[in-house]
Structure formats: C-alpha cells, structure tokens
C-alpha cells in the first residue's frame, strides 16, 4: 500500500522495514546531495529518534511516542495518517513563501 501511494505521488525512494534508519537516511542524503539542514523528517516511534536528531527540521504527529515528541522541534496538531504530513508540508511551503517575499523587498 505504501509503495503504491508513493508511486502515485511520484516518490522514487521508499525504504520500508529498515533496521537502521540512520543508514537509510545517509543513503538518501548522498543520492540527492543533501545536507542535514536541508532535510525535514517526520517520525513517530523510537527508531526514528536518531534521524530526528540530525535533520534541519524534525516533527512528530500528535500520537507519536512520548520520547519522540520530546526529541522533535515541532509536534503536529494532527495524528499520523490524519493530516500530520500535510500540516508540515503546508508549514514548509508557507515558510518558503515568506522567505521569497522578504528577499524581494
């Protein structure tokens, strides 16, 4: 189901069941030539914490494990699967728009 949805959205990298999320994260960063500060990551469980501590922007859905919520920069108003990702995407788009407007002044 996840792979099918990723295909519909044009997402070309999907890593499911990764034992070492930090290793998977490093592989994705290398593939796309990204720095940690350029990455936003949403996690909801303890294995996500290692990556959440590396990225430029970290978030968790409102129903995430308590230790994850303590590790992130932003806790969503929405639960996982109920709009948390959309909430973060909308925040990023709004921040980018504001930055563009400020540079244009």
Concise account of the structure shown:
The chain has helices at 2-9, 21-32, 49-52, 66-71, 84-103; strands spanning 40-42, 57-60, 74-75.
SSE diagram, text form:
Elements (H helix, E strand, L loop, with lengths): L1 H8 L11 H12 L7 E3 L6 H4 L4 E4 L5 H6 L2 E2 L8 H20 L2
Parallel strand pairs: 1-2, 2-3
Largest sheet: 3 strands, parallel
Q: Which H/E pattern describes the elements?
A: HHEHEHEH
Strand order of the largest sheet: 1-2-3
Structure annotation, total helices: 5
Mind telling me the C-alpha Rg?
Answer: 15 Å
CATH architecture: 3-Layer(aba) Sandwich
Task: Average the pLDDT over all residues and give the rounded result.
Answer: 92
Tell me the helix content: 40-55%
Description:
The protein is mostly helical. It has one domain: HAD superfamily/HAD-like (Rossmann fold), CATH 3.40.50.1000. The chain is 48% helix and 9% strand. Strands 1-2-3 form a three-stranded parallel beta sheet. Helix 4 links the parallel strand 2 and strand 3. The longest helix is centred in the C-terminal third of the chain and has 20 residues. The radius of gyration is 15 Å and the shape is globular. The chain starts with a helix and ends with a helix.
